[in-house]
Amino acid sequence: MKKTLLVGTSVALLLANPEAALAQRTGENAVASADDAFGTSVGNERVGLYSPFGARGFSPVQAGNVRINGMYFDYQADLNQRLISGSNVRVGLTAQGYPFPAPTGVADFSLRLPGSEAVASNVLGIGPFGGPRLEVDAQLPVTATLGVAAGVGVNGEELYHGGERRVLSAAAIARWRLAENIEIIPFWSMQDESGGEAQPIIFTGGEYLPPRIERRRYFGPEWARNQGQDFNYGLLTTFGLGDWTLRGGAFRSIAHDARNFTPLFLNTTPEGEADRVVVADRARRFASTSGELRLTRQFIEGERLHQLHLMARGRMQDRRYGGGQRYDLGRGRLDEPIVAPEPSFTLGQQTTDEVRQLTVGLGYEGRWRDVGELSLGFQRPFYKKAVVRPSGALPISESSPWLFNGTLSLIASSDLVFYAGYSKGLEESPVAPDIAVNRGEAPPAIITEQMDAGFRYAVTSALRLVAGAFDVRKPYFALDPGRVFRELGEVRNRGIEVSLAGQITPRVSVVLGAVFLDATLAGDAVDLELIGRRPVGSIGRTVTGAVNWNLPWIEGLSLDLAYESASDRIANAANSFVIPARYVAALGGRYRFDLIDKPATFRAQLASVNNVFGYNNLGEGFYYNPPRRFQMSLTVDM
User: Fold this and answer.
1) pLDDT, tens digit, for every residue of 487-514?
2) Is 60 left (phi over 0), alpha (psi -120 to 50) or beta?
3) Is the peptide bond before 200 cis (omega within 30 degrees of 0)?
4) What is the DSSP string of 430-491?
5) Coil, strand, or helix at residue 354?
């Protein structure tokens, strides 16, 4: 094992590293940057099995397992790429470096921190469906201890389901090192989206998929355009004194949907006839103030490093939603766009809910050189949720369970490590989707449990294999036959996940992953045969792969291949039919060169090369997958 095992979370590592700043964007490459196949994003690219919105069959974002630079963050609004340089999904062994890990995995976002040089990175791109985009990210070292970074982006995005939207994004970050052991990082970001035609959702009238239709042709009403703004801002601090380190993070996240429509096509026949409905909502607002304060004491005892963590996390979440109206536009064909004037909607009163949660915890991490690592944690959340519907207030929901986590890794040799872990968490339950009768409603928090075990093997010094098994259990929320989103039982996701990532040769990098998932349901709804034994949308097998090859004949030129396949997907609650298995592939390349003595990268990619047609599902509603698409961009660091 490398001797860096005993470095731990020293003050030097916790302070932002200028060498790790990612303002110079010409070097962005997700395949070359990924340490494993469990989900890595860098800039505009993503590779791996998982994402912040899907891991082991669940969503870390929905579960509340999100971090910004390692600190707890209650995600309500999207984090744009002017603010974030990338993200990683941590599961299994990769999550063991996090104090108080959570079931479902952790999604950790990294801020686009300013570096030690003055740089302006400019990205001019087009695609994937022809829409242009311009991004400018700049950094400036003001003094030896203060650096600032800012960015702005404009995107005329062409939507894959037809139509277009305008996206304006901006962010600003400062990094101030008051002393060698004190650092303050404030940040702010916003994103404005307007003009985007709402995604139509199709419901069939029986146990069959909708017919194949022409893609990229919008078939909802022209006026069903959404509009909204996202804001995220906050402060990260680090203070170190000897063996003590105090880290803090305070964040505000606000999502405001000024216009929100959902076109629904109900009782669709195999020939494509459907009842056409549009649901309009009043302006919705989701906001949260959250943060974490963590005090760490570390001390070294010979070959052993010990760390004690005292933690407090909290959030104040307020949401306003509902009050929508359903408008019937008559029966018609899917492949015929709706031509009808915008009706005068009479919107109703809205539902409000507020969550107040404080969690305190005590944790221990021990690392023994060439032997292994042990992590233990105890937490006590104090959770309270109040919901007020137009018909009146619901009973207040409160919970304060004791939670525990423990992980152990053993070093069998310099190349082989075994690990096992258990965690119990209190998570926010999923929010009712827009297609639900009670759309936007969030049930009370739920208790979740996870067990996992596996190994990591260093095939070479630059190539790692990770394989493991997991078992995650949660209450199951889904749409019932009346499209009411509610608890229908318990879901148990058991599976095996495999990752192979690194360099095969100095010029070839790979990220290969596979997950085999056995998702099962239990409870009264299953026993009464109201639903089947598999969750809607569950996939038994997912395989992903990405290869990046730096060509030896032309310096700076590389080619890349990406592949993803999925087995049959459960299409309805009764488990009576499935969405067939399919695969997609993408081919691309990048050329790094100097443009007027400035580093530049030209990037091009053709995605969904095989142009396969298929459906995805949201509950028992369907929407088609994106067709073949091409995008290219030129990035210049100045």
Assistant:
1) 788 899 999 999 999 999 999 999 999 9
2) alpha
3) no
4) PPPPTTSTTTT--PPPEEEEEEEEEEEEEEETTEEEEEEEEEEEEEEEEE-TTS-EEEEEEE
5) strand
Nearest alpha-carbon partner for 632 in 81, 124, 151: 124
Cβ pair 486, 23 in contact under 8 A: no
Between CA 499 and CA 502 the distance in angstroms is 10
Taking CA atoms, 426 is separated from 1, 89, 399, 416, 598, in Å, by 35, 19, 9, 33, 50
How far from 5 is each of 67, 122, 248, 421, 465, CA to CA, in Å? 23, 38, 24, 19, 19
Torsion angle of alpha carbons 518, 50, 468, 539, nearest 10°? 20
**Which pairs count as long-range contacts for 204-207, CB under 8 Å and 24+ apart, including other chains?**
204/267, 204/268, 204/269, 204/622, 205/266, 205/267, 205/268, 205/269, 207/572, 207/574, 207/576, 207/577
Q: Which helix (H) or strand (E) holds 596?
A: none
> pLDDT value at position 442?
67
Residue 133, CB-side half-sphere exposure with 13 Å CA sphere: 28
Q: Which of 97, 89, 56 is nearest to 468 (CA)?
A: 56
CA distance 305 to 596: 50
Among 515, 364, 620, 634, which residue's Cα sits nearest to residue 58? 515
Mean pLDDT in residue range 155-167? 89
Q: How far apart are CA 460 and CA 509, in angstroms?
A: 13
DSSP E strands in 369-415: the ranges are 372-389, 392-393, 397-399, 403-411
Q: What's the rounded Cα separation, in Å, for the pair 215 and 628?
A: 10
For 74-138, what is the HEC assignment? CCCCCCCCCCEEEEEEECHHHHCCCCCCCCCCEEEEEECCCCCCCEEEEEEEECCCCCEEEEEEE
Q: Nearest CA to 492 among 470, 516, 525, 467?
A: 470
Q: Which of 234-243, 431-440, 588-597 has the lowest mean pLDDT?
A: 431-440
Q: Is the pLDDT of residue 6 over 50?
A: no
Task: Name which of 73, 425, 426 is nearest 248 in CA terms.
Answer: 73
Determine phi and psi for 437, rounding to 5 degrees. -60, -40
List phi, psi (to 5°) of 3. -70, -10
CB burial of residue 111 (10 Å; 0-12, 13-18, 19+): buried
CB 227 within 8 A of CB 246: no
Vertex 310 angle, CA 304 and 314, to 5°: 145
CA distance 498 to 459: 14
For 505-517, b/e burial (b = at least 16 CB within 10 A) is eeeebbbbbbbbb
370-417 pLDDT per residue, tens: 999 999 999 999 999 988 888 888 788 888 999 999 999 999 999 999
Give the end-to-end CA distance of the chain in Å, rounded to a whole number: 41
Q: Please, are residues 23 and 112 in contact by the beta-carbon 8 Å criterion?
A: yes
